[in-house]
Amino acid sequence: xxxxxxxxxxxxxxxxxxxxxxxxxxxxxxxxxxxxxxxxxxxxxxxxxxxxxxxxxxxxxxxxxxxxxxxxxxxxxxxxxxxxxxxxxxxxxxxxxxxxxxxxxxxxxxxxxxxxxxxxxxxxxxxxxxxxxxxxxxxxxxxxxxxxxxxxxxxxxxxxxxxxxxxxxxxxx
Length: 173
What we know:
Keywords: Acyltransferase, Ribonucleoprotein, Ribosomal protein, Transferase. Residues 4-173 form the N-acetyltransferase domain. By secondary structure, this protein is an alpha+beta fold. It has a single domain (4-171), classed as Aminopeptidase (3-Layer(aba) Sandwich), CATH 3.40.630. Helices cover 35% and strands 35% of the residues. The chain contains five helices and seven strands; from the N terminus they run βαααβββαβαββ. A seven-stranded mixed beta sheet has the order 1-2-3-4-5-7-6, with helices on both faces. Helix 1 packs across helix 3 (48-56). The chain starts with a strand and ends with a strand.
């Protein structure tokens, strides 16, 4: 594998962002959710207008992990009013870290996490936080390994299915 680079997503990456978003979400969750719920979620979360709005939002940022020309995974972070909840101006939310199944276990997720941590530190955030599905043991273990601890729960709606996310955070000061 060549060197993995992290680069900020721009509006010219809209199609690539949509493709990687849909592919990684399907790979991660299709086996444990209905096709109907999956399609409702994908249509809402990853339509062109929504992604375009998110890319152009000054309080969100997307980053690709790339290996030469290939996109291996991506990160979405939010701060200020773009956070999905808690709306703490002194925090940064990791809304998504997704890596293609074929590239998992190759430090791609770790590099994306380090990017989120770097942005949070540059913003002098008090903490980094996220929500992770309570049944996604692999992701929970990844975040625990990186020092995040559970502090609350919230409901994440996938289609018509209400699922519980564990909210985790990492204090930065």
